[in-house]
Amino acid sequence: MVFKGIDFETYLKQYPSRDGYFGKYGGAYISDELKKAMEEITEAYFTIAKSSKFVGELRRIRREFQGRPTPISYLERLSTSIGNVQLYVKREDLNHTGAHKLNHCMGEALLAKYMGKKKVIAETGAGQHGVALATAAAYFGLECDIYMGAVDIKKQAPNVARMKILGANVIEVTEGLQTLKEAVDAAFEAYAQDYKNCIYCIGSVVGPHPFPLMVRDFQHVVGEEAREQFIGMTGELPDAIVACVGGGSNAAGFFSGFLNDPVDIYGIEPLGRGPKLGDHAASLQYGEEGVMHGFNSVMLKDENGDPAPVYSVSSGLDYPSSGPEHAFLRDLGRVQYDVIDDEETIDAFYKLSRMEGIIPALESAHAVAYGIKLAQRMGRGSVLINLSGRGDKDMDYVIEKYGIR
To answer: Is 123 designated active site?
Structure first.
């Protein structure tokens, strides 16, 4: 499939470029010292991680430890309540640790092991990446430091407890808004001081090259499985696919399986309380080009041109930028990006729970909410939603803030 001059049959081999760019987005805007660390990771990724030994071990881990492949579930009652559009979900909530994050964490930790590193360092917002990396570190016998904003620690207490039980050192970040951006800042600072002994395992398709490439490639298994499974279930491709987008790791992996197909693709950002700056985290909808955390993409900026304060009911989506590949796909028009607000998210959270017996993560509930709206608009056809995580981590927060509906 050729779309606006891009041959999507070979897209995954062509993008990013050798220096990490998706069009004008991406790259590595970092200090000379950190460039050495990134070059080491890039070299290791293209040698070690592409070897048959590495790939074979990762496939075994996915099968025997993670429980892959995760299934697709048909949402019969929810579909019937809407009309003639059939809704399906890819069940990443059934991946070990309860979200898609383990897909790249096991890959990154396995790479760290092959590189002889003793520690993994990361940031986390909703805590799912932190739990996944703590799990991977325990599996491979590595030390693990997780940086997390004080606000998110309070919102995501169950995941904080899980990280500690798994042996991770959870480091509270109290600077700024005390959420995901500040956690990334602190984690990068720690990594710069000790990169020879550890590896930074970033939690999304963001950061300097090669992270957007590595994380997308490790998450590609989601889209690859989903495409094969959906055709096996229905005999055809879905008419549309939907995933939530913060940094964008679940969406990048999911979308990558369908980019070369005649399928409408939707990435959904958090509108939060509304379009006013500071009330949302919809960078692809309202942002402009800018550099942060070592990569060029689109970002929400304040009056000084710095990353703006952001908000979302979901801790995993409250980031003032998005992965460079998402900015590229937006500009091409291959993926349509839209928004869902907090109220729609909470409604979808309860609707999926009550009608299908699946409690979604608040991040995933954004995609579910949009999938429902899209189905109502389409009138007929099929929609496949990436259910990127389960909602155990969010239940206390939802009940405290919104009550039982």
So the answer is: yes
73, 90, 92, 101: which one is catalytic? Answer: 101
Fill in the DSSP letter of residue 96.
Answer: T
Among 3.90.1150.10, 3.30.70.420, 3.40.50.1100, 3.40.50.1000, name the CATH number for the domain at 67-99+220-402. 3.40.50.1100
Which segments of the chain belong to CATH 3.40.50.1100? 22-62+101-212, 67-99+220-402
Could you give the CA distance from residue 282 to residue 275 in angstroms, rounded to a whole number?
8
pTM, entire model: 0.95
DSSP conformation letters of 272-297? ET-SSTTS---HHHH-EEEEETTEEE
Task: Tell me which CATH code domain 22-62+101-212 carries.
Answer: 3.40.50.1100
Active site residue 363: no
Condensed to tens digits (0 to 9), the pLDDT of residues 145-172 reads 999 999 999 988 889 999 999 999 999 9
**Catalytic residue (choose from 92, 108, 123, 182):** 123
pLDDT tens-digit series, residues 197-244: 999 999 899 999 999 999 999 999 999 999 999 999 999 999 999 999
Q: Reply yes or no on whether 64 is catalytic.
A: no
Average pLDDT along the chain: 96
In which region does residue 170 sit, left (phi positive, over 0), alpha (psi from -120 to 50) or beta (all else)? Answer: beta
- Euclidean distance between CA atoms 301 and 134, whole angstroms: 32
Q: What is the pLDDT of residues 95-114, one digit of tens each?
A: 999 999 999 999 999 999 99
Res 278: pLDDT: 96
